[in-house]
Design a protein that fits this description.
Number of domains: 2
InterPro entries: AraC_XylS_family_regulators, DUF6597, HTH_AraC
Order of helices and strands: EEEEEEEEHHHHHHHHHHH
Distance between the termini: 28 Å
Protein name: Helix-turn-helix transcriptional regulator
Strand content: 15-25%
Largest sheet: 8 strands, antiparallel
Number of helices: 11
GO molecular function, one term: DNA-binding transcription factor activity
Structural class: alpha+beta
CATH architecture of the largest domain: Sandwich
Keywords: DNA-binding, Transcription, Transcription regulation
Radius of gyration: 18 Å
Helix content: 40-55%
Organism: Sphingorhabdus contaminans
């Protein structure tokens, strides 16, 4: 499986965290079941393959070939059959209101055709991406449509306080909510309201998920030894760590460390690559 990520152009960096391309040249008939745990909302363009997600217990849906995913509070089970290719982009919470008319918490944990949110612009995006012959062309098609979308909300600039909380969540996931609010010059109530609108979740839920992802990244060997040691200290004891891993993966840490989860692994790599960029 091949995974590639790209930074957005400078003018889109306040709104888009990363673009990604993921290809899996699997044999026909091979079924891969995995899960996603996205920190941000993202858009996925399906260029080839049979891809679905479990939207309700036992109910699998596709939502079309260009799909919006809200940020996840828990694991989203996904299934692919045979080879597939996808491309897309992760959306910065601090840029949410410049791209969407509804608060993020109304769309968190949802998978919807992008057409429901962006109308015919979504059709033009998937058409442009499908016609591209390489990664550069795909990125250009997506960036072109994102810029058109931004023109619809000219007064909605990136939120600097939510941009700062993005950094806090990615680099200091054990911080107290009161301390984070203080750093941002907000009350706890203000931080919660702003987080729900931009991140889709409460500050507590954002930090809890980030702490788990820190530990998962360490278990997968994507962090330095010092970070692995620190990751082990982020839970009170082994039973606490087990509970969190079961919550977010349905597995114990030991089982997760050996599990084959190519899609989630690609997400962890993307997270680690961009974690300290801000």
């Amino acid at each position: 499986m091949l995974s590639r990520t790209y930074r957005p152009s400078a003018d889109l960096a306040p709104y888009i965290r990363r673009f990604y391309v993921f290809e899996a040249p699997l044999p026909d008939g091979v079924v891969v079941e995995d899960f996603l745990l996205a920190e941000t909302a993202f858009v996925r363009c399906l260029l080839r393959g049979d891809w679905s997600a479990e939207t309700r217990p036992g109910e699998w849906n596709t939502a079309g070939n260009i799909v919006f995913f809200g940020a996840n509070s828990g694991p989203l089970k996904v299934r692919v059959k045979g080879g597939f290719a996808v491309t897309g982009f992760a959306i910065r919470p601090s840029g949410w209101h410049a791209l969407f008319s509804s608060p993020h918490n109304q769309l968190a944990d949802q998978m919807r055709p992008l057409q429901e949110l962006w109308g015919e612009l979504a059709d033009r995006m998937i058409a442009g991406v499908s016609q591209a012959v390489d990664d550069e062309g795909q990125l250009a098609a997506m960036e072109r449509c994102i810029r058109e979308r931004l023109e619809l909300f000219p007064g909605h600039l990136p939120d600097p306080q939510m941009a700062q909380f993005e950094i806090i969540a990615r680099t200091d996931s054990t911080i107290r909510i009161e301390d984070a609010a203080g750093q941002l010059g907000l009350s706890v109530r203000q931080l919660e309201r702003r987080c729900l609108a931009a991140f889709g979740l409460t500050p507590k839920a954002v930090l809890r998920r980030s702490r788990f992802l820190d530990a998962a990244t360490a278990l997968r060997g994507f962090s330095s030894p010092s970070e692995i040691e620190l990751g082990a200290l982020r839970y009170y004891d082994q039973s606490h760590m087990n509970r969190e891993f079961r919550r977010y993966t349905g597995m114990t840490p030991r089982v997760f460390s050996k599990a084959v989860t190519p899609l989630q692994t690609a997400g962890l790599k993307l997270r680690e690559e961009s974690r300290f960029e801000d």
